[in-house]
Design a protein that fits this description.
Elements (H helix, E strand, L loop, with lengths): L1 H6 L16 H16 L4 H13 L3 H10 L6
Length: 75
């Protein structure tokens, strides 16, 4: 398969097994962690409420932007 790909003039790029830079969920987790630190809740119930409130602020457009930023946009 590698020979066929190279024979066509294409280049193989090998990625690590896991790359946070290529995973759109990492951007969302970064925002969630930032907001949770700001909320500074210390009980389980308060933390769960804070997570729910934060997730309610994330729009479908924002999710689309996370995907587009990582090359996963669909036309």
């Amino acid at each position: 398969m590698r020979r066929a790909i190279r024979a066509s003039g294409a280049t193989l790029l090998f990625l690590p097994k896991y790359s946070p830079d290529l995973n759109p969920i990492e951007q969302l987790f970064a925002k969630l962690k930032h907001c949770l630190r700001h909320a500074a809740e210390r009980t389980r119930d308060a933390l769960c409420r804070a997570i729910a409130e934060i997730l309610d602020t994330i729009s479908p457009t924002e999710c689309t932007n996370y995907l587009a930023n990582n090359g996963n946009a669909r036309a």
